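name: query_chain
kind: protein
chains: 1
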Amino acid sequence: MTDLHRLYALSHSLYSGRARAYLIKQRIAFQERSTGHESFKAEVLPKAKLATIPTLVTPAGEVIRDGAAIIEHFESANGRPSQPQGACQQIISALFDVIGHDGLLRPAMHYRWNFPEDNLHFVQHHFLHAQRETPERAEKTEHMMNRMRHVTEVFGVTEQSQPLVEALYTEYLDAFNAHFEQYPYLLGWKPCVGDYGLLAPLYAHLGRDPHPASLMQQRAPRVYRWVERMNRPDQDVPEFFAPGTDFLNNDEVPETLMAVLRAVAEDFVPETRAAAAVINDWLAQQQPEAGAAAVGRLGNLLGRAEFTVRGHTFTALASPYRFYLLQRVHAIYAGLPLDEQASVEQMLQACGMHEMLSIKLDRSIGRADNLEVWQ
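structure:
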């Protein structure tokens, strides 16, 4: 037995960055291994159930699949160091976790796969070396890369939508940059769960691949610094000359962060609404048994969710997992006193996110044996 946790992840994996940063910031000793390591299929996958990353193996041998579950494992055991105490800040933290997982997939995929002149050699290197050295490695690499290129389109990035995807993303970047000019993290002076969720797209794809990393460095250097900061164990705030040590006082949600949410809401809210309708239709037709797996993206079964932003209709796969995370927002809100619920409603109304309190699936999603399941 070892005192080290093992994190099965990939440096270029979008969702791996979320869990890796948490382990780094919380100073949890770990060794990172590629999914190409022989132990992943032989020892880990039978317990993880799905070949997704990140997946953690604890020193005691417990296997935890999924970044949110990994973070929750440590948060619940250690007094929730990454959860603010205030009602509005708790909601914001949980909401950014959803946004990070699902809300920036279009720019993340677009800027990785649609700029091959800048990115191809870099990305190909990482896909190739994620696998063991076998005669089939190059062929498998090309197959995996082609599959991910296709995923870009089914997430809603087409030749017609690319200009809008880029416009929305640069507006996000500008708003994020203005916020990080004032504070090193989303809610002040240390990262919340929402910081880790948001890092997922903004690190591996948008802050590391050559083309989008250059864009971020030149257009939003404060966002790039936050990406760096999230991957260091210390607070890493030398450019702030009077830093604090905790979340902002008095449950403050700064106006700079409200501006970020307004930018995100423009496509995130209508997509969430449309995805809920698709999944609820599927639930009504299929009526899955309690305990049945609620994993994967249902759009490939029943068609995709359609929604309109600035006159353009996007078509994108619907993800049950988005609503698994959104349930946490709903649970926090439901547990608040009426006066604090009113404060949350007022805040979300002001940033265009109020509808996120009411968009729900007709069935809740739980977790059992490393899988999300219908309840």
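note: The domain at 5-77 is CATH 3.40.30.10 (Glutaredoxin).
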